[in-house]
Design goal:
With about 625 residues, the chain is an all-alpha fold. Helix content is about 70%, strand content about 0%. It has two domains: about 5-430, no CATH class; about 440-580, Tetratricopeptide repeat domain (Serine Threonine Protein Phosphatase 5, Tetratricopeptide repeat), CATH 1.25.40.10. It contains 29 helices and no strands. The longest helix is centred in the middle third of the chain and has 27 residues, at about 315-340. The protein starts with 15 loop residues before the first helix and ends with a helix.
């Protein structure tokens, strides 16, 4: 092998031909992504977007993101910046996600291009630039990527991949740049990107391990001291994610709550409530599904209804274990054998397999997650699958048709593979362009999963298709009778359509399941009033106020009921509570004036009516009542 210091000092692809191919790769990748994702730019928010993007940013300004703290901080910050400059227009969120995907696809090209320049592979893969190009195109065009790109919330996966891939690219550039003046810039950039990756999503935990693997396999043997020293900053990155999850109280820097603390809470809940043994067994089957989706991307599903397996003796588990172990062993064997024999294609293909299994290990191993399978988890691992596929194709070309011109074969391979994949991606994306379509698709594929029906009902409800929404809320409740949110939304729909009896039935279920739901009790009170049961309304408003003493609307409404019943003392107390909560409430002042008037306290009545008019000079009812009290004088 050559000494590392003699490697080409160029910071980019070496040789004019390689540079030209890189430019072609950029153009092809951008073109493929632009077409395949052209129908997503105005797609609506979906699923967890309402939690992680809308609700989260509606209650926070950019000031809440300093100092840095919390799990997945960088992604949350990117959502906050989108929100700051574009509000709730989805165009900006989708544009950023598409740009990230384009950068990641180019990053896959660069990753392969620099790997083949390392001493282990240098000069051993004749068609390396073409392999890099096809790998990038496969990564860019594959429909399995849609969930990580078109589903806005899954920027967690794509942004973490951006930092992950480019951290490795910059590390390789640093190792291969010789005496270049930019050499230490590459190294420091690699460290910075590794840190950002750790604060973007937990999948980045494997990054230091891959860097260690690359350092000790791709480069020639040497002293361990220097290698350990250069890898130490990356190894130290391994403490970031555990500290964020388990030691977040130590890094809040005096703040009340870490950014993304809700996700951390769910992660800890899963860690303590789901069997690691059962999760691992199930993931053998899940990984087989992932591999099938890469080879044959049909039957994609936003929300799989996947069973939890509990015994290795179950045929599905055992056969999956054998298959997964065989694929992994094949990759390791290809890499090890090629290292011994000097074969470049086998080593590169083996690296693709190893990349896939290392990068998927965080979400498909012994770290339990409530949702057993999601397609966005394939985003980072699929770079390895793309590398394996591209390498296999050009290996066969090199063996079967060595005389065929490389440029023509590369163009043909890109066209033959990118076209059907791009079309499939475009078609899959068309489902994301409608609030209900993606869940209609999921309901057909996961008819027994209550969450699918609940989200489909919610989508219909937002679109005003109440009959469809009611049908799917009922199906949700049939599948999961104790789902209080389904009961609540169904009750609201019944209340909206005037079916008070149906609404009351489901609100009662809500308060049975969630006794401290003040809003449900407030709505029950409104129904009781509509039905002429004012004592029942007063009881429900009282319960809402007991649960939430700051519930201003409940105070106001119960005050009105007490006033109508002639209980002026209680009405007065609740109106004072409203004024304490909202001093600028002209309605509260007006009604308090009416109470004082009926109670024979005209001076206090006039005082409150004047206050109502000061708040709202156009309040005619207050003006008329004041005129009646004062004989027309104001």
């Amino acid at each position: 092998m050559r000494n590392v210091s003699s490697a080409n000092n160029n910071c980019g692809p070496s040789g004019q031909g390689e540079k030209d191919l890189f430019h072609v790769a950029v153009l092809v990748v951008v073109a493929v992504i632009a077409v395949a994702y052209s129908n997503t730019l105005f797609a609506p928010f979906q699923f967890d977007d309402h939690l992680y993007v809308i609700d989260y940013n509606a209650g926070k300004g950019l000031g809440a993101f300093w100092p840095p703290s919390g799990t997945r901080y960088v992604t949350y910050l990117s959502f906050a910046l989108n929100y700051r400059f574009g509000g709730l227009s989805t165009f900006g969120y989708h544009l950023v996600n598409i740009i990230i995907h384009a950068l990641n696809s180019i990053g896959v090209y660069l990753l392969v291009a620099w790997i083949v320049r390392a001493p282990l592979l240098k000069g051993r893969v004749a068609l390396a630039p073409s392999i890099a190009l096809l790998s990038a195109v496969l990564f860019a065009a594959h429909p399995v990527q849609t969930e990580a790109i078109t589903y806005i919330s899954q920027r967690f996966a794509s942004l973490a991949t951006l930092f992950y891939v480019y951290s490795i690219v910059f590390y390789l550039k640093w190792r291969l740049s010789g005496a270049s003046r930019q050499r230490w810039f590459f190294y420091l950039s690699s460290i910075a990107l590794a840190v950002l990756a750790q604060k973007t999503k937990e999948i980045a935990f494997t990054l230091p391990f891959l860097l260690i693997f690359f350092e000790f396999t791709l480069f020639e043997r040497g002293g361990y001291g220097g290698r350990i020293a250069r890898l130490l900053p990356f190894a130290l990155c391994l403490i970031i994610i555990p500290m964020t999850i388990y030691g977040h109280d130590l890094i809040l820097w005096g703040g009340d709550k870490a950014v993304g603390d809700e996700v951390r809470g769910l992660q800890l809940k899963d860690l303590h409530s789901i069997s690691r043994h059962d999760y691992l067994l199930t993931q053998f089957r899940v990984v087989v599904t992932y591999l099938r989706l890469i080879v044959l991307p049909v039957g994609q599903n936003l929300d799989y209804d996947y069973p939890m397996y509990r015994s290795i003796a179950e045929p599905a588990v055992f056969l999956s274990l054998v298959f997964v172990a065989s694929v992994f062993s094949l990759g390791v064997w290809l890499f090890a054998r090629s290292c011994q024999k000097g074969g470049g294609y086998g080593a590169l293909a083996g690296l693709g397999v190893i990349w896939f299994f290392v990068t998927i290990s965080i979400e498909s191993s012994i770290i339990p997650i409530k949702d057993l399978i999601f397609e966005h988890r394939l985003y980072l691992p699929s770079a390895g699958a793309a590398l394996f596929t591209a390498t296999a194709i050009f290996f066969l070309k090199d063996r079967i048709a060595p005389g065929l011109k490389t440029a023509a074969f590369t163009a043909l391979a890109v066209a033959v593979l990118a076209t059907p994949l791009g079309v499939a991606t475009y078609m899959r994306n068309s489902l994301w362009s409608d609030e209900a379509a993606i869940f209609e698709d999921a309901a057909r594929k996961s008819p027994g999963k209550e969450r699918v029906h609940y989200n489909l009902a919610w989508a219909y409800q937002r679109k005003g298709e109440n009959d469809r929404a009611i049908a799917h809320y009922k199906e949700t409740i049939r599948l999961k009778p104790d789902k209080d949110k389904a009961h609540y939304n169904l009750a609201v729909l019944y209340q909206t359509t005037g079916d008070n009896a149906g609404a009351l039935e489901h609100f009662k279920e809500v308060v049975r399941l969630s006794p401290n739901n003040a809003v449900a009790r407030y709505n029950m009170a409104a129904i009781y009033h509509d039905m002429g049961d004012d004592p029942g309304a007063i009881e429900s408003y009282s319960e809402a106020i007991r649960i939430n003493p700051g519930y201003g609307d409940a105070h106001f409404n119960i005050a009105w009921l007490y006033k109508e019943a002639g209980d002026f003392k209680r009405a007065e107390a609740h109106l004072h509570a409203v004024i304490a909560l909202a001093p600028e409430s002209a309605d509260a002042r007006y009604n308090l004036g009416l109470i004082y008037s009926k109670a024979g306290r005209p001076d206090l009545a006039a005082q409150e009516l004047k206050a109502a008019l000061e708040i709202n000079p156009g309040y005619n009812d207050a003006a008329l009542e004041l005129a009646r009290l004062t004989g027309g004088a104001r």
